[in-house]
Amino acid sequence: MPEVLSETQIASYREQGYLLLEGHLPAQVIEHLHAEIARFEEESRGLEVGNERLELEEGHSAEHPRVRRIRLPHTISPMMRELMLSDRILAPARDLIGPNLRLHTSKLNMKSAGNGAVVEWHQDYAFYPHTNDDILAIGVFIDDMAPENGPLMVYPGSHTGLVYDHHVNGVFAGAFVPEDVGLDPDRAVALTGPAGSISIHHGRIVHGSARNTSSRSRRVLFYEMMAADAFPIMGSLTGWNGIEDYNTRLLCGEPTLTPRLKDIPIRIPQPQPSADGPISIYEIQKALDRSGFK
Ligand SMILES: O=C(O)CCC(=O)C(=O)O
Fold first, then answer.
1. Ligand 1 mean position to 257 CA, how many Å?
2. Topology of 7-188+198-287 in CATH?
3. How much is the pTM?
């Protein structure tokens, strides 16, 4: 029996590769998130360049702080960790990919008003191929999402198709232009809704988001996770410091040493542009010679 999702919602996710749960979180949670973000913005005033906690947007200054991303927020905000471990986040994920869940990563992507950065079209699975694709990302809408403030966009149904080539000149660039692979731009759907809604997108769905040209910010907190029996394929951009460390990322249920294999297309995200390890998606995607967003 599903915990929170209806059979119709589950069937829709399987067919379309995404779900939108409007007004899923109470207003107090969103207010608390605003306060947490304000704390990190305050911290960023003291920075000229980003660090392991905060990634800065071009034009950032002490007077006008512009944080592009809060990195791994569940490790630096007890409240964001608590939310991640709550049934509000984990129950819908369990309904879709089963009781045993492992965290891949968390991030809070902030598009500031007027010029918040584009995230070019990509598939998460191209960054971190695993032995099966019971992989999803939950996005918590911290602001109201409308077409003009750069909401997450998806190509419905693309999670059942190819894993597209995300390389430029033979180097992994983490992006591609949908028209180049025959995807019709008119089919892309914007995931809009009030703050407090959550989106859930499949690890193989083609998604991205345009620049925020509006006068309002657009902030989404992402928790990315997978079934515990999905193991990274060698070359995947997944940290691996041994099985003990790996198992500390268990969100609920039981760990396993038995990967489940699924016959799905796989590409390895190698070689990487930097020998020093993975770099931010915003930087890696600059290798694309033109944007997939008009
Ligand atoms: O922030 C967004 O709109 C998209 C984020 C995303 O897809 C990513 O960071 O991988």
1. 30
2. Jelly Rolls (2.60.120)
3. 0.97
